[in-house]
Specification:
Homodimer. This is Carboxy-S-adenosyl-L-methionine synthase. By secondary structure, this protein is α/β, with parallel strands linked by helices. The protein has a domain of 166 residues: Rossmann fold (3-Layer(aba) Sandwich). Strands 1, 2, 3, 4, 5, 6, 7 and 8 form an 8-stranded mixed β-sheet that branches. β1, α3 and β2 form a beta-alpha-beta unit. The protein binds S-adenosylmethionine (SAM) and prephenic acid (PRE).
Length: 242
């Protein structure tokens, strides 16, 4: 089945803040692939990280799971027995579609879906946690608390994979990488109007921070080994090991 094309911002419309509602959930696979450079590569590598880090009889968490792409990737990569994946999202439109999406794919590790706020869940006996483009939607002052909660729920040697859209303290670099990201979107078929309307909708909703800020905060949360393992323009993916 092919993904439904994202044309949500194709016509001039009133500037409402971006939200993960039914209209976004319906086109999400197409939207994220055409909007985030390196997304497919990150998903493919989540399988590889799961193969290395997920231990027997432990839990894996996919926080802000949307349609469950990271959960399915973890499931595909897990080599140990008795693991369980817990996928959490606070958008009922996303979670409803996630259920169908996951059922449509074979997965060997059980995936439990939870409708809820990732800031309120309890994390226990975890060997891997994925925060794949979710932290950027949480209020900045609440991010350390969430990372500390993840850290305390991870077993020793456990992995947090954090992917984010980032900003740069150097204005020249920031402007250049935003322009290259917009060029990537144009090459993927988005018009100037779509790009600018979505940019306005994401203003004050998706709050990027610098890579250095993310790395320092992960260290403050307790993680001993932290590194960016992938960067595509202004999109990064970071690994943090307890
Ligand atoms: C960009 S999407 C994540 C993409 C997904 N992880 C993937 O790999 O395909 C962000 C998701 O985070 C969810 N989200 C944002 N804030 C949340 C919160 N406080 N609690 C739970 N989910 C949240 C949104 O509903 C949305 O589905
Ligand atoms: O389209 C953009 O500019 C984005 O920032 C992409 C982005 C993201 O990074 O989460 C924003 C919202 C949608 O969830 C999908 C992708």
């Amino acid at each position: 089945m092919s993904d439904k094309t994202d044309n949500l911002f194709a016509k001039p419309k009133a500037a409402l803040p971006f939200s993960f509602d039914e209209s976004v959930a319906e086109v999400f696979p197409d939207m994220i692939k055409r909007s985030v450079p390196g997304y497919t590569e990150i998903i493919n590598n989540i399988s590889k990280f799961a193969g290395r880090f997920v231990t027997s009889n432990s839990n894996c968490y996919d926080l802000g799971c949307s349609l469950g792409a990271a959960s399915l990737a973890m499931s595909a990569g897990i080599e140990k027995t008795g693991a369980k994946i817990i996928a959490v999202d606070n958008s009922s439109a996303m979670l409803e579609r996630c259920r169908h999406h996951i059922d449509a794919f074979k997965h060997k590790t059980p995936i439990e879906l939870q409708l809820g706020d990732v800031q309120k869940i309890s994390i226990q006996n975890a060997s891997m946690v994925a925060l794949n483009f979710t932290l950027q939607f949480i209020a900045k002052e609440e991010r350390l608390n969430l990372l500390e909660n993840i850290y305390q729920g991870l077993n020793s040697g456990g992995l947090l994979l954090l992917s984010e859209k980032v900003s740069f303290s150097d204005d020249n670099i920031d402007d250049l990488l935003i322009e290259l990201h917009h060029q990537f979107k144009k090459e993927n078929g988005y018009s100037d109007l779509e790009i600018s309307q979505k940019r306005n909708a994401l203003e004050n909703v998706l709050l990027p921070e610098t890579l250095e800020h993310h790395i320092n905060r992960l260290k403050s949360a307790g993680f001993s080994s932290v590194s960016c393992w992938m960067q595509n323009y202004n999109f990064v993916s970071i690994i943090a090991i307890k």
